[in-house]
Amino acid sequence: MIQSPKISETAPPDFSIDLSNQFLMAMPGMVGGELAGTVIYICEHGPKGALGLVINRPTDLSLSSLLEKIDLKLEISPFESNPVFFGGPVQTDRGFVLHTPMGEYSSSIKLGALALTTSRDVLQEVAAGKGPDKVLVTLGYAGWGAGQLEHELAQNAWLNVLADTDIIFSTPPEQRYPAALKLLGIDPIMLTGAAGHA
User: How far apart are CA 192 and CA 27, in angstroms?
Assistant: First the structure.
């Protein structure tokens, strides 16, 4: 996935950092395959690994079409034409709903100002027009094993910055990568695949 220097040539990974509620932006030339050019919202990060959702890769599937596939119909919803996103290469047959907290769902975790739900009940509420104010639905997620993300960060594969919910829910998908970089004060045209090691 990543073409970069050997781990022995880089600084040792920092296992004390917690990237939960941060964006990861893939560095050009360092992250390849399905995650090239992505912005990933990190939902959980700890000693056992990390889980995140790609937020800038819409699919051709609309939310209303997805709901029809699971026998739900959007009654009244501003989300009807919302795209379903490619959340990452792991479990692409499973849905993940990143949303503003509302109600109690059977399989949900709080993520600070947001929540992540994988159970059908949140989609039932969205379909009925009673769900969260803001939702982003993905199929699949991006995952890292223990220490893997720390090693990739040590290899300059990713930039990270505290997440901004406006970028997740209000910024057009094609503008999310440059918008996330701007949080760091970086213009995308300044990036190259040949990042130096500090």
Answer: 8
Task: Quote the pTM value.
Answer: 0.85
CA atoms within 13 A on the CB side of 121: 9
The angle at the Cα of 176, spanning 173 to 179, to the nearest 5 degrees, equals 150
The amino acid at 87: G
Three-class DSSP category at 127: helix
d(CA 56, CA 178): 11
Q: State the architecture of 7-190 in CATH terms.
A: 3-Layer(aba) Sandwich (3.40)
Look up residue 25 and give its two tokens: 């932006």
Per-residue pLDDT of the chain (198 residues; tens, 9 = 90+): 433 333 334 444 455 678 999 999 999 888 888 999 999 999 999 999 999 999 999 999 998 888 888 888 776 667 778 899 999 999 999 999 999 987 777 788 888 889 999 988 988 888 888 888 899 999 999 999 999 999 999 999 999 999 999 999 999 999 999 999 999 998 877 765 544 444
| Distance (Å) of CA 181 to CA 2, 76, 186 | 20, 35, 5
**How is residue 19 written in tokens?**
């990237």
3-class DSSP assignment, residue 37 = coil
- 185 φ/ψ angles, rounded to the nearest 5 degrees: 75, 25
